[in-house]
Amino acid sequence: AVPLPSVPGGFSPVMDLWQERHILLYNPVELAYRSPESARYLAMEAMYCHLFTTDLAGADPPGDPWYARLVRILAMARAVRTGTALHPGVSRWHARFCREEYAPTSLCADRSRIGRLAPPDQFLEGMLFEARTGNTAAHIRDDAVRHALEATAPARREAESGTDDECARIIRERIWPVFEQVCHIPAEYYGRGTGSPGVPPKNPGVTPH
Asked: What is the pTM of this model?
């Protein structure tokens, strides 16, 4: 196992795989606070992402880096869905992880961090929460972000269970147009306590996803 460098900002994996060298990558600061069951789930989540993730960007995808991050999280949700169907026992670790990660006290403590993120990162945080828990991301306070999450929820659910081609079409036609508006919220708007402008950080993994 090799430590994974911390990256400030939005979502970055606590655990990842360097598949070519069969090395587990991990964020030591974040992993230190996880229970053994949660750590096992994160390891399985990372493995599923490498085993079952398919190209959902479609032909000639938008060049906006936020599009790639949107696709990555949707692909993660689909990969975990496939993996847990093959390994039902992982659901116990997943349930333990969600109880710890998204307990009311944890969400309350995390609100200030999320509130300082740029709106696109807040959307992705909310999308990941909803994919993992099946619940609405009510802890996201930005009105524009919450509206975008609500508007795309049906499409995201369809994308998780559809074929690769259906998922790519849903992302391009129904999710990205809404998320793109969040990405283009003027800096003067979200500079007022909802985040700070900037481009998404690169994936901290050592191999491209």
From this structure: 0.80
